[in-house]
Amino acid sequence: MATTKIDPAHLEVTRNYLIGAAEEAWTALKRTAYSLNIKERGDCSAAVFDGKGEMIAIPPSGVPLHQGSMEGLVQRVSKLYDPATIRPGDMFVTNDPYQGGSTHTPDYCVVAPIFSSDGTIVAHIANVGHHADVGGRVHCSTAIDNESIFEEGVLIPPVRLCRSGEIVQEVVQIIRHNSRMPTDREGDIQAQVAANRVGGRRLQELVDRLGPELFQSSTDALLDYSEQRLKSRLREIPDGRWEALDHIDGDGVGSEPLLVRLIFEKRGESISLDFTDAPRQFKSSRNIPPTALRATVYTVLRTLVDPGMHLNGGIHRVVKIVTEPGTWLDPQHPSAVGDRAAPCQVIGDVVASCVGQMIPDRMVAAIGSYQAWRFAGIDPRTNQSYTNYESVAGGLGATTFADGMDGVRGWSAGSMNPPIEAFEQELPIIVRRYELAIDSSGAGKWRGGLGMRRDLEVRGLETRVNTTSMRQIISPPGALGGQAGQTAQFVLNPESDREQALPPVFTNLEVAYGDIISVRTPGGGGLGNVDERPQSMIEGDVVDGYISKDAACDVYEVRLEGDLVLREREEVRQ
Amino acid sequence: MAISIGFDIGGTFTDFAMLDQDDGRWIFTKIRTTPDDRAVACLEGVQTLLAEAERPAETVNYLAHGSTVVTNTIIERNGAKTALITTRGFRDVLEIRRQVMPNRYDVRVPKPQPLVSRPLRVEVSERVLADGTIEQRLNEEELHTLLEQLKEQGIESIAISFLHSYANPTNEDRALAIVADHSDWYVCTSHDVLNEFREYERTSTTVANAYVAPPMQRYLDRLERNLQDQARVVAPLLIFQSNGGVAPASQTKALPIASVLSGPAAGVMAAGAIAKQSNLGDFISLDMGGTSCDVALVKDGQPTFAYEQEIDGWPVRTPRLDIHTVGAGGGSIAWVDPGGLLRVGPQSAGADPGPASYGKGGENVAVTDANVVLGRLNPGYLLGGRMSLNRKLADQAIGTLAESLDMDPIQAAAGILDVVNSTMVRAIRVVSVERGYDPREFALLPFGGAGSLHACDLAREMGMREIVVPPYPGILAALGLLVSDLRVDGSVTRRLRLSEVDEAELVHVFRSVEEGLRNSAAVRTRPEAGWWAAYSLDMRYLGQSFELRVPMDVEHPSGNSLERLAAAFDQTHDQIYGFATPQAAKEIVAFRISLQAPSGLSSDQLPRYPIANGGVEATHRPVFFHNVGMVEECPVFIREQLPLGTRIDGPAVIEQMDTTTLVTPDFSAEVDPHTNLILRPC
Description:
The structure holds two protein chains of two kinds. Helices cover about 30% and strands about 25% of the residues of chain A. By secondary structure, chain A is α+β, with helices and mostly antiparallel strands. Chain A is globular and about 80 Å long. In chain B, helix 4 (about 140-150) crosses helix 5. The radius of gyration of chain B is 26 Å and the shape is globular. The two termini of chain B are about 45 Å apart. Chains A and B meet through helix 1, helix 5, helix 6, helix 8 and strand 14 of A and helix 3, helix 7, strand 22 and helix 12 of B.
């Protein structure tokens, strides 16, 4: 607890202000960025840290997985550089997941210290943006078969990006020079600097007004507040120990599906999550660094335990995550981690399953993971090479009170779809279909959310495609008797005589001009028994085309007469 | 003889303002809104005004109306049964949205139901590419078949939205012609409603327009008929639009979505007229009512514009005043969160049961209760004594809250005001600092029931040097209808590199958009109104995705317009984001024009506060001020008693029927020649 008692009204005013400062930074970043991924898909976040590097405030606008990025960076900087040499106007950048920076190499983090009038660092403003390509073995830097971090692009340790307010051009040149999309890199880095300047100005005003002591006791009190709020929620919940088992599709480079096991214990005012029973780290990029694991755990706890949670470092005091170093959930340098976000979807599901056992009305079935694909080639409109990527959402799992949402990102994944019109303006690709995938959801009293189908026609030359995928072999399980959602599929030239099923994940698949590459993302799991689903809801789904008549008859064991759904069992009863 | 009438429908009341231009007499009235048919209250109010003024209906020569019909139709989901015709493969664009949860951390908040159900979203073969090339012409046979099928569905309205129609509208235009030929359904195309890229937002806006059009047409027809047949008012009805102007009802029937934002925008326009009267060009308006607070910035007499907004979760992108709304009002509820923080809002106690002090059984502590406990609000003088507040209930409720916070009641009440003020400060920051304006260079213009109660604290926090409290802060929306000009807006997306165009080409594009606007219902019904045009370009650095607006003088081509545009863009970028890259390539994305024509009252016709003869008499009561504490003998004045030129040093309270103005100890108040109260730090 803070030594000075902070007035709860003052604290709320301060909290409001800090969230506002980070939000201003986030808005500036999105609006001045150059790459499709940051400006249109919003794959970026901003947050405020205290003088020691503990996260104080993060607005909900960013991507949940980024909550883990940036944490640890400040500590790393002060280890590498004598704090006495750090000046106002300095900023540091890194993309190295093993240096406290990001959760994979495409995420560049930029942090700026904020000084009080007596010259001490009392706060930091930081932001992170996912840069579509940072160099490395393959375009977009991430590929499932990357064997080490050294294949995942240029690795920038924490270095000065700005010195006393001036951008260090040498660093920008290194970042530029190592990317397949140099202009985007420079524009995005500049936008990240501008974002910290905008947010930093705001933060500086508060520091100046409160003075270093009151500012620091206020940020300390905010950490206490977040801790106390979560603890008070936990006090309402009975103690216990729960287990959840699920599988990931494998290591992505040839293994069988692999077990994911979580032991979740709630005792008094604290929670511990034990992930130690896990396979050794992979020779692929599917490893999850601890920062990404933590961000995923926090996202699920926030979503299901306390949506009003004010996320910051205070939560660390309540939630303990245990991993075994050298396993894929605590990989050691130089393991590759580029593909960490897809398995995080399954991690989210096992955490949710335990929370659902702990708080029965918050049970949620597994979500349909998203799939991502990355394109590179020559754009014949400009004769220049291009590379870019996007991710396509699956469906959410059913809850105890509603169907899962159709076609949205779940758990720690959170960036938007690019507008088709922006996508086609910038890439030599024509979108042919973008729709909810019929019959993809898991049935139940509440059905899962539908996955989606997206078909792209390649209009570039020398085009190569990489993918990220999950829930393509192991389907998203249902809960409390609900059925599993459908698995994902990649298909080349669907519904033609050249149709070809593609493997779950692949690197540098060559596709020709005019080929259509199609993805169907998985649907969410259902919850509760299918015979408890009201007939009117089955009818509605058939009329709306979310489920086919055949599937309705098969899965829900009903008969259709016109648009009317009749239950066989009930007829027998009559 | 000439009479002007403005009436604005709000959630609870419909407000009326009337000026008899012959004798300068103003009459204001309020009628309870009639939600079943909102036209009923409108008619009743107009008749009441005419009776009170004892003027015949024929003398009404100006009639302007603002309503929430469009918004309510969407929120209440009682619009027309609407179909969407879209490009094959894309009927789910509307439902998939941006593939994120409405609230990323809460599965309990569902995605909103689309305004068009899935079976009524139908696909037709056609395709335009990003560069405007027609890859596939509209398959007309398919469309005919679809229309036959839709006929059996009993639809009333159709939205047509094809990919890349902003780049080439040919296919949409052809579909429009076929639909119009086929039936008398209302029909609109996406490039007509919003001629800009981003298919989800454009489709959503177009669908919303089609969805509200039939009910809005019926409503306006009914209202016009009632006014003509029953009230005998023959003046043409003008409708207030989100862009801060009015347009003939025929224009609104054609494009109803342009009138989605009404009351708050009208309030800003009235504030603008009041400020202009005092030669004040730069101000921030703050409309604080019972549940929310609307903040807007006006620079050089011109309100700023925004294009992004959501109605009940659906993007509706039409030109609108940049009004930032936050959940901070007199009814905002104070609560203790599980971590021990004092929070205020966004939930509101509403009017019933309302704050604890309303005495209607409400147990929630609201901002109003804090103002009562601190002596700022006179429990006996709300609405000129027509409504009273229960001080004891306010004390009790705050006392309970204070106990759970381990604070004393006065400290807790002051804390509630700090918190609600911080929410409003953030809103002021959004419209000023985040847009590159320094709030210290702006005056604060508070209105609504509670604005002037909080104004000094907000102005101090933002470093603002002047506060203007208008004579009647409660009726600014109705007043705004009477001071607004005729206005229509148009735009077109054209992506052009600044380095590759010449001035003549820009002028040519502007002229073609302008021609379309001059053919709009608004201009055609008022050809002689004295229309003038304002031109601007949306620009960005090549590679960015968000644009900044730069004005262009099309009437007086200077020969160096392109250099000036480039410089103006760099400067704006620097102002807002703190950097500019003059050497970087710049891109024009959209051309925007607004046509305006004078129509409303001039600012010297605005109402003044009636000053009674008879001298100033202050009463006294204890009032709490931040940094000072309780002032036991704080003087309280009645606004009617304050002659022009009166100066009052804080601490003081000035009461009037529809608001209370708090003058903190560091401010003084003066009655200006227009009967505004001007507050300045002393």
